[in-house]
Amino acid sequence: MRFTTTLENGLTFRNLLNLALAASSVLFSVVFIYCIYRLFQTYDWGQPFTKFLCFSGLFALCLTLFRHRQQTQSLPNFLFIGEALFASLVVIAIFYRMLNGYGDALFTAPTVDIGYTTEHAARLFFLQGENPYLSQEINIRPELAAEHRGFHYGPAMLLGYAPSAFFPGVGYKVMSMVFLAIAAISMCLLIVGNMKDQNRWQVRSTVLVALMLFFLPERLWYEVFQVGANDIYPVSLLLLGMVFAQRDKWLWAGILMGLSFATKFSPAAFLLAMFLRKDIRMMFLAGCVIGVTPMMAFLAWDYQSLMENVFFLRFGLNYDSTSLYSITPPVLHVLFPLAQLSALVYLLVRNFGRTLSTEETLVCFTLLLIIIEVTFKEIHANHLIWFYPLIAFIVATYRHKLFPQR
To answer: CA 284 to CA 252: how far, in whole Å?
Structure first.
């Protein structure tokens, strides 16, 4: 019997080999990501070299999958059906385990500083009509100068978490759940929009694998449910903005991304940089201007207090034990901003004359964001929230393409 003989089910031995490679690619990617997320959960503070290795692994995985995106594949439906069933069971198990562990925290006030200062600032603004950037009581920390003891995030954060001013504790956590749902739905819509020509089982399995990877890290549940990190809000705005960009609704895309910038300028600034291209849409720029109006309003109210607390404080941060700065000789610290600038300039030059697809834009953004994160002065656990939906989107989209087909 020759190896090219067709089997009874219509598969050749070469097709079986490619099927095995595709299945192995999925299995390796999922297990690899799970191991990295466990390390992130275990070493949530300090351990900068471990975090560097974890991010390096994610960077290599995403880049390899993306570089193999052009290889053609013809995979049978039973593979997609099997993936969909497996991912569905895992998602159910994740929700069962995490809701049992962290569900009760939905009704408690945030305990991390980025959470309770947001709640405090919302009460100050909505109930007392005061400027939270002028307050010296929001961040009462001895290492902070008086001008840096106000609210440390953009004014659009106050809009997103406005209910926390009227319903302390539960209002904050409920809004975080809403933003978590928006992020998940937006990720799924991006996948469906990219797979219009694929069969329904291929689309379904991709969506379910993406949801599985998104909800897989325990750190996501701990940060959003337990301690009350607010990073899911600006990320949900970016993902929803990408959904509108994918559908050529450029005004709304710009509004949402501008609003994300007015909430927390990073990571929004780096996604906006991916749109600085020759074919940039004027309606997108107009939308960005509309989106940042909350920030402009507070700049008009008192520009110095906002600049001191939102921008100058961030750029003047001292490094801590979570960053590579803490284990690198001071003479070499200049390499970190140079790496950030080099990565940003490279992508700006690379993309300027191109019309990027949605997935290519998100891949460039994710790779840039990883470089920015590992070379920043802090690598805190709440920053990981930025990456979970992006990694899930990329790996689910290209999950069969880690190993070259034969």
So the answer is: 8
What does pLDDT average to over the chain? 91
CA dihedral 394, 59, 379, 243 (to 10 degrees): -20
Please state at what angle helix 113-126 crosses helix 170-194, rounded to 10 degrees.
110
pLDDT at 265 over 80: yes
Q: Please, are residues 3 and 13 in contact by the beta-carbon 8 Å criterion?
A: yes
pLDDT of residue 11: 58
The answer to whether the beta carbons of residues 160 and 178 sit under 8 Å apart is no
DSSP 6: P
C-alpha–C-alpha distance, residues 400 and 27, integer Å:
9
Q: In terms of Cα–Cα distance, which of 275, 232, 233 is closest to 253?
A: 275
The share of the chain scoring above pLDDT 90, in percent, equals 76
At 191, which helix (H) or strand (E)? helix 170-194
Q: What is the pLDDT of residue 275?
A: 95
- b vs e for 15-36, b when ≥16 Cβ sit within 10 Å of the residue's Cβ? beebbebbbebbeebbebbeeb
The pTM of the full predicted model, rounded to 2 decimals, is: 0.93
CA 234 to chain centre: 9
Q: Are 187 and 393 in contact (CB under 8 A)?
A: yes
* Whole-angstrom distance, CA of residue 37 vs CA of residue 171: 29
The CB-based long-range contact list for 92-96 (8 Å cut-off, 24+ gap) reads 94/212, 94/215, 94/216, 95/215
What is the 3-state composition of the chain as percent helix, strand, coil, each rounded to the nearest 5?
70, 0, 30
Task: Take residue 76 and report the two structure tokens written for it.
Answer: 């049978």
Taking a C-beta distance cutoff of 8 angstroms, is the pair 309, 236 a contact? no
- Alpha-helix runs per DSSP H in 103-199: 113-126, 156-160, 163-166, 170-194
Cα 18 from Cα 4, distance rounded (Å) = 13
| CB contact set of 115 (below 8 Å; sequence gap of 6+) | 109, 172, 227, 228, 229, 230
Integer Cα distance of 310 and 144 in angstroms: 13
Kindly state the greatest CA–CA separation across the chain.
83
pLDDT at residue 3 in the model: 38
